[in-house]
Amino acid sequence: MTVVTQLDAKNKQPTETIYSNAEARKILHFLLGNVQTAISPALLPTDETTYPQLESILGHNLPDPGILLDKMVASGVLVAELVDKAPSCPECSSREVSTRYLCPQCYGYDVARGYLYEHLKCGKVGSDETFKKEDALICPKCQAVLHNFGVEYRAVGAWYRCNSCNNSFNAPTLSHFCRPNHHEFSPDRATLVPIYEYRLNVNALLEIRREVLLYSEAITMLENSGLTVAAPQTLPGKSGQARLFDIVVTFPKKGFRGSKIVAIDVVLADAPAGVQVVKEFVAKVKDAGISESYLIATPGLSEEARVLAKNSNLTYVEGMSLKEAMESLRKQSAFERSLSRL
Questions:
Q1: Would you kindly state where each structural domain of the chain is located, as residue ranges?
Q2: What would the DSSP string read from start to end of 255-315?
Q3: pLDDT per residue over 84-111, tens digit each?
Q4: What is the pLDDT of residues 117-149, one digit of tens each?
Q5: Is the pLDDT of residue 12 over 80?
Q6: DSSP H helix total and E strand total for the chain
Q7: Which of 36, 60, 123, 239 makes a 20 to 30 Å CA pair with 169?
Q8: In Å, how far are 103, 117, 208 from 124, measured between CA atoms?
Q9: In what order do the strands lie in the sheet with 97-102?
């Protein structure tokens, strides 16, 4: 089994891009509840690869599920395990490929296959056709009627005959045929396409649980209030540097065009967060030009961090749990006023 932790290191996907993708979050949420489960491939009659589990997870089919799954591998949240390789046409890349058995003399594909039988008593070896007489098997050498396969006679191999040139041979020449565009090519010219199944990257479980599960209640609460939520989300900074926030909420404005963006960061720790957390949040809020922002801290901020937050006009919310902190956020006057206008 070949395990791929990152399909293409040069095109590594930022992890936050995956966590902000709603479909990727649903896939991760499902896999977190079924850690031993893999997203397994299935072949359609057209020889295309599909992933049937995704329809039940997402409620719809992705046009090209491999693209999203490979991005999730490149970001490090999934690992890909090679389960097969399938030939594709070197001319048009079609996966609708048949294998043809060709006559090595005339290269025709009208080939019939038979078997070589051996009469164990007299040692006669011949084609199954030479043994068949009407509905019976009769040894062409000693004329014995054969009844019991494996006792009186056995198959010692296969043979082939070309119906076009009548050539008999032991092994055919193999060829591939592209059904949509009628390209014919030998196996040594075929492109071998890898087929993967996908599992959670166990080395990233803590991060995935934090990003997907711990925020799920918070995001659900905001979405149930009629808000547009992206978690996490990158916003452009005036400095030219992209600024990543844990949650970005969009409040539609009534009566005129436009919307209001609210940025939220969540700090989950065993002890109160310090001054550095406040400094970093204030800096990126200022750079992103966000007019309304909230720092959620569980279990809270240290006394020094609270002083700095107040001096920086930063609104912070504390709680012993994320759920408790989100309830406190709803009661913040500015946030509550924005909700009341929806």
A1: 2-90+192-203, 104-171, 215-340
A2: SSS-EEEEEEEEEE-SS-B-HHHHHHHHHHHHHHT-SEEEEEEES-B-HHHHHHHHHTT-E
A3: 999 999 999 999 999 999 999 999 999 9
A4: 999 999 999 888 889 888 899 999 999 999 998
A5: no
A6: 11, 22
A7: 123
A8: 27, 8, 69
A9: 97-102, 173-178, 184-185
Look-up: residue for tokens 């719809």? 60
Distance CA 230, CA 69 (A): 20
Mean pLDDT of the region 48-57: 87
Which pLDDT belongs to residue 10? 43
Q: Is 327 helix (H, G, I), strand (E, B) or coil?
A: helix
Task: State how far the Cα of 72 lies from the Cα of 29, in Å rounded to an integer.
Answer: 13
* CATH level 2 (architecture), domain 215-340: 3-Layer(aba) Sandwich (3.40)
pLDDT > 50? residue 3: no
pLDDT at residue 2, rounded to an integer: 44
Q: Of 105, 79, 217, which Cα lies nearest the Cα of 170?
A: 105
CA dihedral 196, 207, 56, 322 (to 10 degrees): 180
